Amino acid sequence: MKRVLTGYTRALIYSYTCTKAEYRPKRLRMQRLAVAIERSAFLDGHYRAFALIAGPCRMCKDCDLSGHCRHPDLARPAMESCGIDVYATARDSGIGLEVATRKEGPSKYVNLILID
Questions:
Q1: Quick one: which of 32, 46, 75, 86 is 20 to 30 A from 39 by CA?
Q2: Is it the case that residue 103 has pLDDT exceeding 80?
Q3: Domain count, the chain
């Protein structure tokens, strides 16, 4: 994965905040947004565009672990699963990201779309 990631020179990174009450619907919207940006970049000629989302996929309430994804068109890996240090990447991009120390209150998430 390190070899793949070092082949990219441009990316779009964005953060969003959500509360516990809006967690699932907002995470789903943001996952769909990342995929839409990836598709738009692809259609603009950036054939290697690849979206990475914050944390695990949340498209289904219960993941089908048999190996058959119900949403292969929308599912994307987490930055963490690709070996990306999300805190350092966010910081280097000017995004303030702090470790959540309590369950109450809003949390911040970061999505990344590799563009080249």
A1: 86
A2: no
A3: 1
